[in-house]
Amino acid sequence: MQQHHVMAPRFQVKFTMKSMEQELQCPVCKDIVKQPIVLPCLHSVCLMCASEVLIQSGYPQPELPPEPNSPASTPNMRSPRQMRRPMPKSDRVDRLLRSGSGTYPGRRRKDGPPPLMLFPCAPCGRDVELGERGLAECMRNLALERIVERYRHTVSLGSVAVMCQFCKPPQALEATKGCADCRASFCNECFKLYHPWGTPRAQHEHVQPTLNFRPKVLTCPEHDQERLQYYCKSCQMLLCSLCKLRRVHAGHKIAPVTQAYQTLKDKITKELNYILSNQDMVLTQITQLESAVTQTEVNSVSAKEQLSHCVKEIMALLTERQTMLAQALEGSRQRRADALSSQVAEKRSLLEHAGLMAFTQELLKENDPSSFVHAARITHNRLAQSIESMQHFALSADPSFRHFQLDISRELKLLTDLNFIQAPFAPVIDTQRTLAYDQLFLCWRLPQDSTPAWHFSVEFRRRGVVPGGGARGGIRGGLAAARWGWQRLEEVTGTCAVIDRLEMDSVYVLRVRGCNKAGFGEYSEEVYLHTPPAPVLNFYLDSRWGLHADRLVVSKEQRCARSVPGLSLLQAADRALTSCHLTADLLVGDVAITQGRHYWACSVEPGSYLVKVGVGLESKLQEWFHLPQDMASPRFDPDSGHDSGAEDSSDSPPPFAFLTMGMGKIYLPSSVNSHHCNANYRESGFTNGNGPSSPTGVTYPLPPRLGVCLDFEKGRVTFYDAHSLRPLWEGPVDCSAPVCPAFCFIGGGALQLQELVANRNANQTPVRRVTIQSRVTKLN
Q1: Where is the B30.2/SPRY domain (predicted)?
Q2: For labeling, which of 50, 229, 465, 467 is most exposed (least CB within 10 Å)?
Q3: pTM score, two decimals?
């Protein structure tokens, strides 16, 4: 039993070592690697194989060392004097790799640098750039060499007796020791002879006897004898102390190689332990893969049978169609032949001695007038018809069969393009029509050369949701959201979808893929949509206030308004040099906000002159509305009251908050805590957010849609780029009374409220409940 316990681990190690033979094979020669070097792609290949591949690719032959087991590499084939010389301490393989390999032989120093070498790496399936120095850039894989040596020693694969390199050939003994410093193998007697006690050689490192000695540690391929003591994390390469000082590594994360060794070793250990602890999962997946292989064979046979059946059906249909067309052709030929034969017989009867002519001549011999007339009428008709046919001769049937030719160009193209059904290509999401408002509206299309899709699968997930928290955004947020998985809308038949019941002020990731008989296709590119920061407020433009029909027109749906400079502005042009006369038209929403947070969006026509979008107190808007529309500038009346109470209390919030847009630009004030009573506010009665002493601001390109969010409890209003939900400007507003959405036109312009996604398919506008009671309505 004791012997069994001793032999079992050895058998297990031997089995493990034998099972990893595939990992030790060279990808070029498919044999166990010899003198492996590491390519820039981190794959290992034999040095001789790499040299042969480069030569086959057209590069000059590099100078390489002889094979380790060749006679030229063994000292016992040298002369006795050469045997007594001390063995060189530098490895010839590494020296040649650093100096000669990968360079043009005989190249002078004044010549330019050789072209970059490209090595076709088989595992990568692409060309790997070696650099100007070729194989000299590649270091030896000493760790792999040691593993190969242990592998050969353990499984006794290809192991041969290593003879002493210093015994005379007739009495050569088997080597028992190897010297890493002398790079030679010795028997016991020769080892004592060449390593006398009390000399420096006695301190040499003893190793197993071998013919392939390698250096103890890796050295820098550019700086000879410099050990690689550092690791650059940015470049992912080993460095010596001299390479570390280069400018190319300035600012990089460089760590000692011992630290990198321990970090990488710990990672590999954890990964190995994870795989070993989940062997059941691996076995399950192997079972699934084997079942998939079996199903592949079965399904391929079924697919071949189906292919043969489809081709037979096509051939049968072609044969049937050929028979039908041949019958139609034969029927036409028979009818034409009969018609032409009848015409030939008719013409033959007109010959001199033919039937009709002979009969006519005999008829002319009749002398009885009554009998002649009675019998000659039909002959006369026949002769007249014959003369008519002679004068207007035409074939009774077309002998050509031009219209019986088949045009099979389309069918040939179809047969040429005949192929197995393909899954739909990745859809292209229409970012112009896709938006997030009260609901998510996603629109897409298939590429032009894609196969049709039976239906689509829309997948979406909330980005940046951390379980138990509300953090969002960033890489960590995206990784955390991945744990929640994707939600799906299955079997969407159209090219658009509506997604509801979503969280406010959240970013959602969406993607689409099509499906047909071949299965699901590739996913579209992921798009990110930001939901509004508050519930969407649905309202319409209130057309009951006294609108000037010559300047302002509201659409029938009450969601679009257009302002056209009217006659009053033209009549006021002659007064523009003495005083400022403005034509300001006001529109408000048909709702009044008294609590909560609300969001809405609108779009302003880029060609508009000046349009103001914002909110204001309902009472102040009604008060301003009943002032004359063409009013003189209050700049000459300091106590006009158009600042809505800002002169009475400097700390009270303003009753209005507006952003000004026009001529394709949007004006963002630079001050957010002002009294909103700048020059524009004093002239038109509306604020643009600037303070009285801050006339400067910033202009940006007009966004496609402008979003407004009102927080009634906090008395704050925020303007957004509704397309990306990027905040543009935020400021205070008086919310001590009901607040209404408001819009002001100065000059020509157009504005349209954003339609609810839920109302896109509605046939009619729902009935509205009006909350604003304007004085104009009461007076009327």
Answers
A1: 519-762
A2: 467
A3: 0.56
